[in-house]
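Example record

The entry below shows one chain as it appears in the dataset: sequence first, then structure tokens.
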Amino acid sequence: MLGGLRVHARGLHTGAEGLGGAKPRRVFLSLLLHRGVPVAKERLVDLVWDGHPPNGCVATLETYVCLLRKRVQPLLPAGSSLIRTLAGRYAMDMSLVDLDLDRYERLAATGLRPDVPAATALPVLREALALGRHPLLPEEADDGWLADSRRSHVDHVHRTLVDAAAKVAGLPGGDGPRWAEEALQGDRLDESAWLALLLGLERGGRHADGLRAYERCRRLYAAELGCTPGARLQQVHLHLLRGTTGDDELRILLDAVVRLHTVTRPQADHGTTAVPAVSGAGGVEAMEQAADALSRLLRAAARRQSSIRTIVA
């Protein structure tokens, strides 16, 4: 159903036009989208006629089911029936169906399992997204009956892109940042997608690209939400800043700032200003390290300025 309806079996195949017209096809697709869950005839009537059924609609529905059985029977093993009747309900026998929508979701779930290493997950996630990117039943008119299923599929692909980008962040090839950028095309304000993008760039050593991406995010949030990026994005931004400097003193200062930022703003949200509340040895140590590093930088700057004045004089 992804990219267009196609039915293949036993060397035979048919497309949307081979199922007997728009309304029988809608019955067929509705049963497929319910993934084997029995659907009451009344519910199918509502789906097929958009809530405005004609007289005798139940009998017409039963005729459509008979027509579908005849159309798909040549594709099935002898003695099997794809559409089952269950006490006033119909159900698709999913044991006879290899559905690409199911296959995409299984691959995505497998690749995103916590116990699967990122390198192992990468080809699985590539295969999943190659399937999932296709639109759901694009040949069907956008008249509302498919709206929930299409929206659910788009949302699922978006979350898969974000989670996959985070999963493979740092692996060579750049899939993580590309997937995060693709997710941002669908939702520019998704903080988790921005985070996956920045992490992928930071772990891949692309610090300058990461800083440019953060600046895009900062400007977007200021314009659209009237706030700054959240604490997690700010923390990665500090890591990116640290990665772009070759100055040991500045690196020490930025390291301390990262630790201080973590201690003082652990729960910052959009549109809120966290009040620094440093407590414990870790927070005090971070403040002391930051202050010491800053003092050393200022003293070095003062010495350089004094040397310059002496040369000029």
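Notes for this example: The longest strand covers residues 6-9. Residues 266-279 have pLDDT under 50 and may be disordered.
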